[in-house]
Specification:
Structural class: alpha/beta
Number of helices: 19
Largest sheet: 7 strands, parallel
Length: 719
């Protein structure tokens, strides 16, 4: 027997299967999709078995050393999905398979994450022996539940349990246990409104694979998701629910567990590798029917998928930003087609491309235009900071301060958004204009006052703040700009008796901090929740009646064709956090661009007008959804070499892609990152039959080049 094995070979972007002899002792264990350990040159590597055959053209075959898994970890569907991804993204097949799996199951030597075992005691009531009083106390604990784990018997000493084991009243076993403990929740189900029920019926009955659920914030999209999942369960099918931010998972998980109990597995970056390993095996074993998680949960090894739901489908976190650069939505559609299931895209502010497809009847469009039980949308006011800046206290306008005082007096809660972490954006010199920059990246360092460091938000480089300017040697350094850390400091001055929770990457990096902060705010342990965009989506707090956006212009300043869309989305989403219960909601946007259409449309909650305004611009500028995009980056430690190869690539592409607009080469949006220089080419096209063929040849040409790295991204969300 011969096995064709796919291994991960460094610096190669080509997929080649290597033939190995299967020793007779391993023949019964070999399966397609299983991992094996093989000799490769002077090393030992791990790989996936993709073919089993009787002969090989290769001579002097080496033998497989051992089989790693008990069962295949890549089933037929995932094997085919990996091939589709490799073709769709022009990535290596091995990378596509690796991205589907937790670290414990990737084909990479040195990974050693094992199963967790727990001591469990089984009570045998049929054994009749005389027990003393203390032993009877132990036996009494088994009347409600049998068996019990050692942790559940923590009140009793090991010696007492050992004595009962000797008498054979108890039997001690080591049982596999899952690392992630989930608390039982009380079953809760809400009645659907007429609008919600109509939406559910439409999405179940449609013959389209993809439905867009376009519902205003607070319209009850989550209840619709749960009703769809309940329908799938009745038909013996499973579901995947994807959320864009880890901060959304605690509240959503609680609601789903209240409805579906422990039929749920979790999957997101805050889990340890051991927890991911356990959750993956729960899915593969069919022990759960619902998976809730972030982007990579789309690869959950479920066998009978009914629905794949992408909540907040407009989020850019559904696009993988490293190889393979897959679009989660496209992967979800491929899986739904394989299983005969459906994809649900939910958002109050869907991507323009998604909404355009729904308007053209490519997707099923389902609308939820009203909040549950007729609750009013919050009243939104735009504060023109051009007029207010002279009267402002720090970065707070007087109208915002008054609104906050009013809500705090009523013991109501406030969410404040500033989409920039740290204390200040720039440290510069008054005298000579010197600016502290990252030595590895083309970016200024952000000042973090609490740690008294300057930090690069790309590579993580950090350095202590200096008192003297390194250039002119004067004590004239000062900070410019504002981040959440500075706003927290200003809040303590304005409202000294008010408790503030700051939620950003800096405060939530430790495991469990997202959930801890959300629970604390929900329990009214804080009056103000201050944060970056992670506070803008999906959170549901009954007592939040005021939302303040401190700088509504932040994302408008980004040099990106989606900057207006990002601004509209963020403002609309964060506004939706206010007034979600019976109390009236209020929202204040502080801005220097009060007449910009993105801000005006967000104020009026007018997605339709924003769609029309933005689509007109996209049409003239030849951007999605009117044109498709491909981003090509040539990266090197040698800037001149990167430019030379970018120019050469542009000439080749121009020669063979006659129906494509080619922009560049030009420095990428971040020209230098991790000491790597990047030049970018952008392709715009509507129809180009030979595009994949030409780009495949370009990828192959640079695959073996050690000095130049080609980075290719189909349908990039940002340029």
């Amino acid at each position: 027997m011969i096995a064709a094995v796919l291994v991960e070979v460094t610096n190669k972007n080509v997929d080649k299967l290597f033939d190995y002899l299967v020793p007779s002792s391993l023949e019964s264990e070999i399966q397609i999709g299983i991992r094996v350990e093989v000799p490769f040159a002077t090393r030992t590597l791990e790989g996936f078995v993709l073919e089993i055959k009787n002969s090989s053209e290769a001579k002097n075959l080496k033998e497989i050393k051992r089989v790693i898994d008990e069962k295949s970890i890549l089933n037929k569907e995932l094997l085919e999905l990996g091939k589709w991804m490799a073709n769709d993204t022009l990535s290596s097949l091995i990378n596509c398979y690796q991205v589907m799996l937790p670290k414990a199951l990737k084909a990479q030597a040195g990974t050693n994450i094992g199963k967790k075992y727990e001591k469990v005691y089984y009570y045998h009531p049929e054994v009749e022996v005389k027990l003393n009083k203390s032993q009877e106390e132990v036996v009494a604990a088994f009347q409600k539940k049998n068996p019990l784990s050692r942790s559940e018997l923590h009140d009793f000493s090991k010696a007492r349990l050992d004595r009962l084991v000797e008498k054979r009243v108890l039997e001690e076993r080591l049982v596999e246990a899952y690392r992630l403990e989930q608390e039982e929740e009380k079953a809760v189900r809400y009645s659907l409104t007429v609008e919600q029920q109509k939406a559910v019926d439409t999405m179940i009955q449609t013959d389209k694979t993809v439905s867009l659920l376009h519902g205003v914030t607070g319209s009850g999209k989550t209840e619709v998701y749960m009703e769809l999942i309940a329908h799938a369960l009745k038909e013996g099918k499973q579901s995947i629910v994807l959320v864009p931010e880890i901060s959304l998972t605690p509240q959503m998980i609680k609601r789903f567990k209240q409805r579906f109990g422990n039929q749920i597995a979790l999957w997101h970056s805050a889990l340890s590798e051991g927890e991911k390993y356990d959750e993956w095996r729960k899915m593969a074993r069919g022990e759960v029917n619902i998976v809730i998680g972030a982007r990579s949960a789309v690869f959950a090894p479920l066998q009978h998928i009914g629905f794949i739901i992408l909540d907040e489908e407009h989020s850019d976190s559904y696009k993988q930003d490293s190889s393979p650069r897959y679009d989660t939505k496209q992967v979800a559609i491929q899986r739904a087609l394989y299983h005969g299931g459906k994809v649900i895209l939910g958002s109050a502010t869907p991507l323009l491309e998604t909404y355009a497809r729904a308007k053209k009847n490519v997707y099923q469009l389902v609308e939820l235009p009203h909040r549950i039980n007729g609750k009013a949308l919050p009243r939104v006011e735009v504060i023109d900071m051009n007029q207010e800046i002279r009267k402002a206290k720090g970065h707070f306008s007087l109208p915002l301060i008054e609104a906050m005082k009013n809500r705090l007096e009523k013991h109501e809660q406030i969410i404040l958004l500033l989409n920039r972490r740290g204390y200040a954006s720039v440290i510069t010199c008054h005298q000579c204009g010197y600016v502290e920059k990252c030595p590895h990246c083309d970016i200024t360092l952000t000042y973090h006052k609490s740690a008294n460091v300057l930090r690069c938000h790309y590579c993580g480089y950090a350095t202590k703040v200096q008192e003297v300017c390194p250039s002119c040697h004067e004590k004239s350094l000062h900070d410019i700009g504002v981040g959440t850390e500075k706003i927290e400091e200003e809040l303590k001055t304005l409202f000294p008796d008010v408790h503030v929770i700051r939620m950003d990457v800096d405060t939530t990096s430790r495991k469990g901090m997202h959930e801890k902060m959300i629970k604390a705010f929900a329990a009214h342990e804080a009056d103000i929740l201050l944060g970056t965009q992670i506070v803008a989506k999906g959170l549901d707090f009954q007592d939040v009646t005021l939302v303040g956006v401190l700088n509504a212009d932040t994302s408008l300043m980004i040099p990106d064709f989606r900057s207006s869309e990002m601004t509209f989305d963020l403002l609309s989403q964060v506004a939706g956090r206010s007034g979600r219960s019976q109390k009236e909601g209020e929202v204040l946007f502080q801005t220097y661009n009060p007449n910009h259409y993105a801000i005006v449309c967000a104020k009026n909650n007018d997605y339709s007008r924003f769609y029309q305004e933005e689509m007109a611009i996209r049409k003239v500028m030849k951007y999605p959804p009117y044109y498709y995009l491909v981003s090509i980056n040539l990266a090197s430690r040698d800037a001149s070499l990167a430019l030379l190869e970018a120019k050469r690539s542009e000439k080749v592409l121009a020669k063979y892609l006659d129906k494509t607009i080619i922009l560049g080469p030009s420095p990428a949006s971040v020209f230098k990152k991790y000491n790597i220089y990047r030049y970018q080419l952008i392709l715009k096209y509507q129809h180009q039959d030979n595009l994949h063929e030409v780009l495949t040849k370009l990828v192959d040409y640079y695959a073996a080049n050690q000095k130049i790295k080609l980075e290719l991204d189909f349908y990039p969300l940002h340029l």
